[in-house]
Amino acid sequence: MIKAVGVIASNTFREIVRDRILYGLLVFAVLLIAVSLALGQLSFKEQTRIAINFGFSGIHLSLVMLAIFVGSTLVYREIEKQTILTLLARPISRTQFIVGKFIGLSLVIFTAMVLLALVLLFVVLAIGFEMSPSFFIALLGMYFEALILLSFSLLFGTFARPTMSVVFVIGIFLIGHWLDSLNFFAERSKSDEFMLFSKFINTIMPNFEIFNWRAAPVFGDVLSLSEVAFALTYTMGWLMLVLSMTSLSFRRRDFV
Amino acid sequence: MTNSILEVQGLRKSFRKHPFSMQKLEVLKGFDFSVEKGKVTGFLGANGAGKTTTIKCLLRLAHPSAGQIQFFGENEWSSAVRRRIGFLPERPYFYEYLTGREFLRFYGQLSEKLKDKVLVERVDRLLDRVGLGHAKDRSLRNFSKGMLQRIGIAQALIHEPDFIILDEPMTGLDPDGRMEVTELIQETASMGTTVFFSSHLLHDAEKLCDNLVIMKLGEVVYQGSTVELLNKVDYSHELVFENNQSEIHTKVASSIEEVQGEIDQLRTQGFNIIEVKNKRLSLEEAFVNIAFGDKND
Q: Which CATH number is B143's domain given?
């Protein structure tokens, strides 16, 4: 069981690492970090803050794009090219296939994050940033968010075309970042219907703002362990739910 | 049938006409067939007869609407059963970013049966066997169609299965490629592996198959040995003769008595008899009779 998942995961990792799209995204993120350095020169006082803000934005966007764009084609491409047929005729279950694909891309996202974080760290340390654990926790938050988005990309990828899937997941990404604003306005409105609507959206959509710790390293905020533990539990819950739905949807499919 | 490696009973498959439609289209109409152990069985039928859908149902790549499928006498589609089966789909696309070696290693690892050292040796041996020893470290994106087909067969054989299912293994290949694949199938069968392959290239099927299963519009219309099918229709005889201006003519007679009568008559008319040929029904003719004619049991 575990071996089959590992074999699928390592092949998925190899597939993406040998794909040009990954390098396009990495170059984009490195450029953004370089721009942050240039912008930092404009304001000596704010140099570190601007560099970290831009750098984190570059890393965040790259991880999100990897999860959405690569994740949406991951299963679809196997179905479209019919490579899935030779795989599923082997002693592996459809759930193992989905989990293997998820782990493979998760590892790619993790590797990309580590590489980009090293570049950013090199830059910000050079301009006098004082290292703090919140730098790594901020990265962890971005990774959790990318994992949830990846699980949704896989879910939609089992029944929708990649363009549709990308649109759906971008929708979830945007809503997930606007939930705090929605809650704020719902509380202010004092309308029961609006409150109910807000509660409903909060129940069916993940809130990505709980992973937004990107400002913490700049302002020297200390993140509590319970905050991180809650985010981890929240991520695991969403992953289990969405991957189970993906597996169910995939198990019912006929490959004709 | 005893000694069968695959038994199919009452296989049915329906699809919705549209994703939101309640109307269903029955593609496989409830048929039985079996595949004998150690034999090469051809699975024939015109385009749209239901061959590929049947194969996908056998391998649970599509869920049958009804029916029973038994591999090796077992009803359950277990990992143990799957480990004993190799499969090559129609028009296979493979992971083009992998090299020949990596590709076979990947499928070997998925079969869960082999230790690493054994697998490495087997991959190299199999690549040599399918004539791809020179392309072990070349990525699949640089393979020709024939090479892809051969490595496709190799992935079906990497775990040394007892039974291989090949869906149109010769489609799209040039004559050389077809000959290579034919030889590979013959070699595999000679090593004791049961082969079940679908094809619409009847010449190849006639050359390879001990048994045939023929489908027409979602039903099995013939199941039995290739020789029996060909013997179902009587031999005919062709007389080749020439007149005194050396012009060649032919006549067909359906029995020996008729041939004798024709020869006597032609000789009295001054013709020279050049040759009398036994004309045997080809699989192509038999197939056309069955697949496009009336239902034949």
A: 3.40.50.300
What total of structural domains would you count in chain A? Answer: 1
Answer yes or no: is B294 within a domain.
no
Q: Percent of chain B beyond pLDDT 90?
A: 48
**pLDDT level of residue B1 (50, 70, 90 thresholds):** very low
Q: Are residues B74 and B164 both part of a single domain?
A: yes
The predicted structure's pLDDT at residue A186: 85
Contact B110 A18 (CB under 8 A): no
User: CB of A7 within 8 A of CB of B110?
Assistant: yes
Q: Is residue B287 part of a domain?
A: no
Of A214, A39, A212, A59, whose CA–CA distance to A127 is shortest?
A39
Distance from CA of A89 to the nearest CA of B (A): 6
Query: Looking at the partner chain, which of B82, B89, B97 has a beta carbon nearest the beta carbon of A15?
Result: B97
Q: What are the tens digits of pLDDT across the range B62-106?
A: 999 999 999 999 989 999 999 999 999 987 778 888 999 999 999
| Inter-chain CB proximity B95 and A83 less than 8 Å | yes
Residue A159 inside a domain? The answer is yes
| Alpha carbon distance B45, B292 (integer Å) | 10
Q: Does A20 touch chain B (CB under 8 A)?
A: no
What average pLDDT score do residues A109-132 get? 88
Question: Which A residues 34-93 touch B at CB under 8 Å?
Answer: 81-92
Tell me the residue range of the domain where A142 lies. Answer: 2-251
Given a cut of 80, is residue B60 above it in pLDDT? yes
Whether B53 contacts chain A with CB within 8 A: yes
Average pLDDT, rounded, for chain A: 90
Based on the fold, state whether residues B50 and B190 are members of the same structural domain. yes
Instruction: Give the number of domains in chain B.
Output: 2
CB contact, 8 Å: A7 with chain B?
A: yes
Distance CA B151, CA B104 (A): 8
In a domain, B165, yes or no: yes
Residue A43: other Cβ atoms inside 10 A = 10
Q: Is B296's pLDDT higher than 50?
A: no
Distance from CA of A79 to the nearest CA of B (A): 11
State ipTM. 0.83
Structural domain containing residue B249? 236-280
Written as six digits, the tokens of B251 are 């006549």
pLDDT of residue A1: 65
Residue B279, CA distances (Å) to B138, B225, B255, B293 in order: 49, 20, 11, 21
Interchain proximity A83–B98, CB inside 8 Å:
no
Domain-located, residue B194: yes
**Can you tell me the distance from the alpha carbon of A168 to that of A108, in angstroms, rounded to the nearest whole number?**
22
Q: Are residues B62 and B16 in the same domain?
A: yes
Give the dihedral sign, CA A81/A84/A85/A86.
positive
